[in-house]
Design goal:
With about 290 residues, this protein is α+β, with helices and mostly antiparallel strands. The chain is about 45% helix and about 15% strand. It binds zinc ion. This is DUF659 domain-containing protein.
Length: about 290
Amino acid sequence: MVHSGGRPLASLINNNFERLEQVPNSSHRYYWKCRHCGDTDNSSGARIQGHDNNLPNHLIKHCTNAVALLRQAARQFIMEKTGAPTDSNAILTSLAASGSSTIAAIPIKKHKASNLDGYIDRPLSKEQNNLANAKLLRFFIHANIPFHVGDDVFFHEFINVIRPSYHIPSRYVLSRHLLDSEAVRVQQEEINRLKDRKCLTLLLDGWEDLLRRSLYGSLAVEVNHPPVVLALENMTGQRGTAENLVAVSQKAMNHMEVGDGRKFIAVTTDNPTVMQSYHCRNNNTVRNK
Ligand SMILES: [Zn+2]
């Protein structure tokens, strides 16, 4: 998309990034500078190599000057690249349809088909292919299947038996384009859900995983509503001080466009000493705004 593939550059890229010199290899890629934060000191937007979703992801995750609407446009941009179904209702409907009612929905196969339709594989339309890719990714994630299975020869043989015209996305496509697209879709859906909430509680908890990384997860919860994951932060090597926890929770709230904290009425953690200090610091932060 970003490199010169003959296609006109999407306006999201042109409007928000300035093209710099070409990357010194045969990739035909360029370096880009963010028009919003590229000139500020130590900015991550000063020089970004344009490949995959690096540029829109900069606006979503790293740009210090991008406004909420622009971040939303960048998420939309990533979703449109894979043609992922973006309307949450459409997804819920299709999920519901593929759920409990599956057995009833699939017509019983006739043993003797009356025409060739039963034998010949009709190619998938672009929309069907995009939907199949999105469903495959969700299955891989939920079943905890590694993405390299997308390149597995026996998996290819299996797909070849049931639907030869479906091309399984490679590990690269699964782990970059499709995963990016699914991640921003979920994020946008959760942001939309948080918009109507007014009495949220921020839950913050840390734990150590099997690789002995120190992780901090933050959730926004409200009675009678499903919880929303704000962020998961790797804080290995940092101390769980109140100062660090305030920074982590601020970053998490920014990530979900609720950074001003107005929708939160309470914060819960499991360490009373840190909590007291956190309380003082957080009050100061809010007052300073
Ligand atoms: Zn920027």
